[in-house]
Design goal:
The structure is a single chain. With 161 residues, this protein is α+β, with helices and mostly antiparallel strands. It is 32% helix and 20% strand. It is built from six helices and four strands, in the order αβααααβββα. The strands form two sheets. A two-stranded antiparallel sheet has the order 1-4. Strands 2-3 form a two-stranded antiparallel sheet. The protein is globular and about 55 Å long. The chain starts with 6 loop residues before the first helix and ends in a 9-residue tail after the last helix.
């Protein structure tokens, strides 16, 4: 999708996309085109190696908040709401929700030359909406064995993973 300047322009771009009955489209928005499409737990090795500890310490600190959780996926969703890194990647079926997150203000310090001298300035980054198209047969729901296995990996130590 090209650069958009208004909500109307964005909606027009979404509506003009070819829809396939064999595909599901989901959307992810983030405040910088530099962001990788990667769950937060995988962005730093330290977090990845200690995922199981982060989960256990959060549950130990807030046990009452987890009493109703019946699956590892529910625990990861709650963990994400505490702003801790998880193996989950937020996407939405609603492109306007993705646009909202793409409008988040993100700045970056960059080096520039000015009057022959090196200097650094703060630049505001462009947001980004990613469209993820998945064949319907590959879609897995919250109660599938695949989702359960992947979510339960968060409970294993790095050695066992």
């Amino acid at each position: 999708m090209d650069r958009v300047k208004s909500v109307t322009n964005f909606v027009d771009a979404i509506l003009s996309r070819h829809a396939s009955p064999s595909m599901i489209s989901t959307y992810r928005g983030h405040g910088s085109v530099d962001y990788k499409l990667q769950p937060s737990i995988f962005r730093q090795m330290y977090m990845r190696e200690n995922e199981h500890i982060l989960l256990r310490e959060l549950i130990a600190a807030h046990p009452d908040d987890f009493t109703g959780d019946t699956s590892a996926l529910e625990m990861l969703v709650r963990m994400q709401h505490y702003s801790l890194p998880t193996r989950l990647l937020d996407v939405s079926m609603n492109p306007l929700v993705a646009l909202y997150f793409a409008c988040e203000r993100v700045t970056k310090r960059v080096s520039t030359k000015r009057n022959g001298r090196s200097t650094r300035k703060t630049m505001e980054m462009d947001g980004h909406v990613v469209v993820l198209r998945v064949p319907k047969p590959r879609v897995r729901y919250f109660d599938s064995d695949t989702v359960s296995c992947l979510a339960n990996l968060a409970r294993l130590s790095w050695t066992y993973k």
